[in-house]
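Example (one chain per record):
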Amino acid sequence: MNLILLNPEEIQHEQFACVRDPRRLRHLHEVHRARPGDTLTLGVMGNGIGRGKLVQLSDSAAEFQLEELTTPPPPPLPVHLVLALPRPRMLARSLEHVTALGVKEITLLHTRRVEKSYWQSPELDPGKIHDHLVLGLEQARDTVLPRVNLAKGFRPFVEERLPALLENRRGLVAHPGMPQACPTGLTEPCVLLIGPEGGFIPYEVERLLEAGCEGIHLGPRILRVETAVVALLARLF
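Predicted structure:
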């Protein structure tokens, strides 16, 4: 945890904050080995980053005296990530990774090779999703939560939602065998679509290309989704 991320309601007034969440308290005790008088990096959800002096630490609460939390969070990546819903454990890791990298718009999409049972996973509970996003923010010293949308139908997504996403954005479909290598150093906004472990089926690729997306690849190797997502984002930006 490279940032103690505060919720606005944890700020008692302008100069003091109190954390009672067991996870963060455990991290302060066991990882930071914090002691009263230590100065730590703090941020407020949706706002700035700064420093705070630990005034008191117990098993039930940590109290901080805040300094100016005026440093802005790092800039977001100009990308809307459309990710075919991965298996639950991979979803958790992927959400944390892409949040740490600066993705702020995520759509989880159903495709033919996505197991229907994945949509019943507890990992899709809004609270669980929120927890994974927060872990990504803490890792990257960021304070702005991504927005996560669910799209449980491929065809409705392509026909009803994708056209609006592609307005003023470049659409990129990452799929093995596409003719174009993944571009590098993008500065323009884009929509990045990544299939499940088995890839998009040919019909899905055709529909995405017809919608105006470009097909790209990362080379001949077949990667796990969580690896491919990080590799694509690192190469694109």
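Caption: The first helix runs from residue 22 to 30.
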